[in-house]
Amino acid sequence: MSNHTAKVLNFLQKNIRYSYNAPTIYRHLNGKIPLNTIRQILRRLTEEKKIIKLTRGFYQGKVNSKVLKILEKPPTLLHAITIKCNSLKLQKRGEGAKRSCDNFDEWFKFNHFKFVRYNKNGSGGMWTRRFWVFEDRDCTVTVHGNGTVELFIGCSKHPINYLEFRDIYNNVMGRIDFLSPFVDSMITQIGINKDYKLLELDGVRSLRLQEYCNAWFQIYKKESIGVVRFESHVAPRLGLRDAFLILEGLSSGKGDYDGGELGYV
């Protein structure tokens, strides 16, 4: 790469947020490179796919890993979290405790849970309800007949940090306090992500790597929010206390929640 080419490319990379035409680059470089030479360099760099040509002769640098570290440092956030625990109260009610069963069923109905059968012909089933917490964040609670309780926090479009996760968890557990005490609480699935607004995938829609049976990684364009997401999913079966300690250190970034009072529906 010639000295002139390196100067033009370096200028575009340092000003990656903006686009320039040849005369503007000529002025920014104090006229040290002839205008026609700059035009030739821009055409050559475009053919080599080192820069991007926009409309009406404007050019823009392409984001690479070095530039990206300078431009964007997105926080590490969380989504797709599954928590499992067991309700001692449900486990101890017993098959013959008809009155106890009726009390639980009435509580589920009163709190707008929906009963879903495991299959059309079977008698068993589960109670489920989606709690809206704040903005587009929600948590689906599923209670099985054997006393297992599952919480699923989706929020893929609006991922959360550790403090938001903790507040959502505490809020929802308060909604189902009637079923307490809970034991054997653990996280069985969690998604960890970084979202880049300036990065673009060139010639590929997504990349996916499944290294282990309980962990996988992918990079893809999340069209719904206009970002390129670096995402990892793991199924750790990790005790809740240990999980909180790990997630507190991992996700220190800021989400959208401002710490105000949580509402619910």
Describe this structure in words.
- The structure is a single chain.
- The chain has 265 residues and is an alpha+beta fold.
- The chain folds into two domains: 60 residues, Winged helix-like DNA-binding domain superfamily/Winged helix DNA-binding domain (Arc Repressor Mutant, subunit A), CATH 1.10.10; 174 residues, no CATH class.
- The protein is 31% helix and 32% strand.
- The chain has eight helices and twelve strands.
- Strands 3, 4, 5, 6, 7, 8, 9, 10, 11 and 12 form a ten-stranded antiparallel sheet that branches.
- A hairpin with a 4-residue loop joins strand 10 and strand 11.
- Helix 1 crosses helix 3 and helix 2 packs across helix 3.
- 22% of the residues are buried.
- The C terminus is likely disordered.
Notable features of this structure?
alpha+beta; 265 residues; 32% strand; elongated; Arc Repressor Mutant, subunit A; two-stranded antiparallel ribbon; ten-stranded antiparallel β-sheet
Question: How do the helices and strands line up, and which of them pair or pack?
Answer:
Elements: H1 3-14, H2 22-28, H3 35-47, E1 51-53, E2 59-61, H4 65-71, E3 77-87, H5 88-91, H6 98-110, E4 114-117, E5 125-134, E6 137-144, E7 148-153, H7 162-175, E8 182-196, E9 206-212, E10 215-222, E11 227-234, E12 238-239, H8 240-250
Antiparallel strand pairs: 1-2, 3-7, 3-8, 4-5, 5-6, 6-7, 8-11, 8-12, 9-10, 10-11
Helix pairs in contact: 1-3, 2-3
